[in-house]
Amino acid sequence: MKYTALQGTKDLLPEDAPKWRYIEDKIREILSLYNYKEIRTPVFEQTELFKRSIGDDTDIVQKEMYTFQDQGKRSLTLRPEGTASIVRAFIEHNLGEKSPLVKLFYFGQMFRQERPQKGRLREFNQYGVEVIGSLDPLVDAEVIELGVRINKAFGLEGLKLYLNSIGCKDCRPAHRDAFNKFVKDKIEKFCQDCQLRLLRNPLRIFDCKNEKCIEALKDAPMILDFLDAKCKNHFKKVREYLDQMGIEYILDGRLVRGLDYYTRTTFEIKSEALGAQDTLIGGGRYDLLVSELGGKDTPAIGFAAGIERLFLVLEMQKKFPLEDERLDVFIAPLGEKEKSLGLKLLKDLREKGLRCDLDFLERSLKSQLKEADRQKAKKVLIIGEDELKKGKGTLRDMETKEQKEIEFEKLVQELIRA
RNA sequence: GUGGGUGUAGCUCAGCCCGGUUAGAGCAUCAGGUUGUGGCCCUGGGGGUCGCGGGUUCAAAUCCCGUCACCCACCCCA
Question: Which nucleotide is nearest to A5 (CA to C1')?
Fold first, then answer.
């Protein structure tokens, strides 16, 4: 085959497109209940924006971005995530001036040049929310509950919510120092990768799946023990609100996020139905990002969710509703004149809002009925020589097999009533 | 970037170890059984560079080397 979809990209075929639409519709419906407003931003931005927001030392920026030069030799990058663009737009359009609290959501494809595997593509779709303008732990709780709620609305089973707080710029350094020292002192007990992580992004050692490292980390200093009074209180409130709403979660002091902009509350929702890439939703606070990108000091929180992963779980747990796109009428013409009459009727019926189609392949009546059956047509209008002569078509009900003759002029009327 | 697995018909796969008649099955598709009537059934047909390139051999889907793609995992993350 000469041309194929590129590695890590996928075609969405007609059989799956309705499922995709189902997902989007349902999510939109819920987001509307929560009073979130949609925002759409370009798929590419200045490279610098992502470097600034995601962090120069992260893997995303280091080796996963699709970066290219445009004709003017500017460095552009296909967005690897959604938050940076939205914060950029928030600042650029002074959205914070119009109202002090902005609740946004987005859908869109993201691009990361990683090795594909189950639940991970190079071009993938995310939806996400961002709430910009409030430091109130109540907002954290609302955002987390929203994430839980959306998954619940799809009937997903086997989900777990993990929660942590990674502190702020005041309390993180103390933990970082203590943690680095802890690891350095017993560096030989950690795997190769973790020894590298210590230099790059020490907290990610918490993510290591290596048994040795997990064991070695047993008594490691946890960020939760280092939170300053404000952060501690904030986190306490978040948990209280979640408890109030009956949201179950697992307190996970090892949960650290991979993007630099996160502060305080972080959370993930994982599905046990997925493989290694099991995070359905990941998010947290990013109180410093708006000012980091040149806006006024504005606190914010949000999450991003992988739609392909949601799709996988829905498929596995058979949670897609099976609604067929049935045809109201299928027209079966048996000759040249019949075809042109059929085309006219088709137009009239469609104008009245009926879903219909006609056989374009000049097939036998038998084949045409077969086709109508495949299309799950409710009725078939047969137009042959006899019908043409009489000025009446034969209308067959595909379920009852009843047939009646009906004048072409009255057809549209009759079908609308039925 | 690293490791393992898999590439044969539109789809799911058998055949490969132990090279050898026209490369198979089920599903799908088309036609006929019903000269104008679907779903079930029966009969028949079409459809394959056996991922690609090279090598070994009288002979390669089958053995060897290379290469590409996909999948899973590491890594990373949604």
Answer: B69
Cα separations in angstroms, A84 against A90, A116, A158: 10, 23, 31
Q: pLDDT at position A1, please?
A: 67
- A58: CB within 7 A of chain B nucleic strand: yes
The per-residue pLDDT for A257 is 77
Which bases of chain B are contacted by protein, using any atom under 7 A from a CB?
Answer: 1-3, 29-32, 34, 36-39, 49, 69-78
Q: Note the CA–C1' distance, A370 to B24, in angstroms.
A: 29
Sheet harboring A279-285: ordered strands across? A37-38, A102-111, A123-132, A300-306, A279-285, A263-271, A159-165, A250-251
Q: CA A193 to CA A183: how far, in whole Å? A: 13
Residues 146-175, chain A: which have Cβ under 7 A from strand B? none
Task: Using the CA of A403, give the nucleotide whose C1' is nearest.
Answer: B37
* Residues in chain A, pLDDT under 70: 1, 418
- pLDDT attached to residue A400: 93
Q: B5 C1' – A233 CA distance, angstroms?
A: 50
- Please tell me the predicted confidence (pLDDT) of residue A346: 95
One-letter amino acid of A389: K
Q: Where are the domains of chain A?
A: 17-171+227-316, 329-417
- At A275 the pLDDT is 86
Quick one: A17-171+227-316 is in which CATH superfamily?
Answer: Bira Bifunctional Protein; Domain 2 (3.30.930.10)
Nucleotide at minimal C1' distance from the A59 CA = B76
Long-range interactions of A8-12: CB distance < 8 A, separation 24+: A8/A113, A8/A114, A8/A116, A8/A121, A8/A122, A8/A123, A9/A121, A9/A122, A9/A123, A10/A121, A10/A123
Complex ipTM value: 0.88
For chain A residues 319-348, those near strand B by a CB cutoff of 7 A are: 334
User: Which fold would CATH assign to domain A329-417?
Assistant: Rossmann fold (3.40.50)
